[in-house]
Amino acid sequence: MSNFRVRIQDIWRNGWVSVGNLARRASRQRIDYVVIDLAGSLPEFILPSAWWQRYLPPVPGFPAPADGLSLLALRLMLERIAADPRPKGVVLRLDDFAPEGWATVCSVRNAIARFRATGKRVVAYADEFSNATYFLATAADQITLPPGGGWNVFGLRLDLIFLKDALDAYGIQAEVVNVAPYKTAGDTFARSDISPEHREMLDWILDGQHEEIVSAIAAGRRMEARRVRELIDSAPKLAHQAMADGLVDAVCYFDELPVLLDAKTDEGKRNGGKRGKKNKAEPGAKFVTWRAANRLLVRPLRWRSGKSIAVITLEGTIIPGKSQRLPIPLPLPFVGNAMAGSESVAQAFRRAENDDAFAAIVFHVDSRGGAAGASDSIWREVARVRTKKPVVVYMANYAASGGYYVSAGANWIVAQPLTVTGSIGVIILKFVAAGLFDRFRARQVHLERGAHAGLFGSDAPFGDSGRPVVQKMIDELYRQFKRIVVDGRNMEEAKLDSIAGGRVWLGKQALTHGLVDQIGDLRVAVEKAQELAELKPDDWTPPVWVGSGKGGLLPPPFPTQSWADVMGLVAALVKEKAWMIAPFEVEIK
User: Fold this and answer.
1) What domains are defined for the chain?
2) What distance in Å separates the CA atoms of residue 576 and residue 589, rounded to the nearest whole number?
3) Residue 275 above 50 pLDDT?
């Protein structure tokens, strides 16, 4: 679209918006605080559902058809509220906030920081605070609890299970070949206890997470880090005890918040958050829901660049073929119900590459990895397309192993401080069930042609003749992985050796090691893509989500595959030999 045509359209649109804004500003309806309920997991974006989907019953294992709150929607809401001079700020309700990872919480904190930088206030309210909700709440100006609430910030814990002895009891043996002791994805099945390398790696992950949480609380509550650690060690705390310790600012029920937040009300000042009757003459601050505020707030004037930033998402386990979301997780280790197909991701890159409306691409990665071959196919698309258009990777909760492999070829990598990344390495895992057959007195007969025809069979271990063959395969894949990182990150191989070998890092640690370029959220990644595309920063260049462009009759969130397709997918994944997968998930509570 020509710049002249864009400007004419913008003048027309902004003219009508300005007329509407005059009417909105002239409205006598009072807006002091907009109440936003941060419910659900807050994904980066939610594809809009068709109108008729709202009238159909939900499908087990799939999100409800009704549109929920996404990080994109939250950022836009806060921008709208910040642009209107009438609201003093927002009240965030955190009771139903259930993020899938720490990077999501960091993204909300980033959005709050931008909002507060405009001079608006943020008030956080919850019936009780956990690690995640309080970490988020410390980004606000004011934190409130009801009298019966609690401060349950207990610290961090990782629970690991090792199944070697349990599998032995059933005659099953796990055979693992990996690149280094730090590539521990198979340890759950092949070991009876944690290895020293596994413990060392988890220690620096937990230390990094705990330090980030302590630092955030210390900065938000103006405390020393030592004092914060003491308070965490003394949890749980009831509401008034938390207030006495300086962890919350007020104790009140939600319906008492308007009086508390009304600076004009003497009673609100005297109350200090304690229970009391409202001043009937002064009803307190005016709270409105976002649904009501959306009709009253002024709308932004935008001057477009005439281009867009394509956002391509890779979410879940990386597999060959098309992306799928199944009703239940597959009965395979490390495989969930969300799977990113290499074919679907490649199609999305080609669409963005061939569409002149897209000036650059942001590759949103939220994956612990997956099949080695599928990861390489996606990396190839990233490396190929970046020669024509800038590609910026945004690492969400996870971008590890295969998730890092597909990211390494980008122009720039952005991660959150608590993103789980790295895990540069390859693993082969197979289960030997010969003992299980013996227990049931079942006889297996194998007819083979070829010296290595039974290499990956479940009837026998790799053995002295097979293990060197598998190790050679792993070593070659690992050399290829390292070559991808060395070239993509412009890094010395000697330096990479000290941080690779399956070692997992948090985003802030990865920045120190040169595995990522910048700490930030998706908006930071979009701004960087705009910069690399040489677009003016003051012009509006919207992010547009791009998919493969192909699907079934029913759009998401309804399944498009039959059970025969599901079983075919299981069979295909069982045949996968080499995996680039991160060894563990980091729980958020």
Assistant:
1) 31-154+235-296 (3.90.226.10), 308-581 (3.90.226.10)
2) 33
3) no
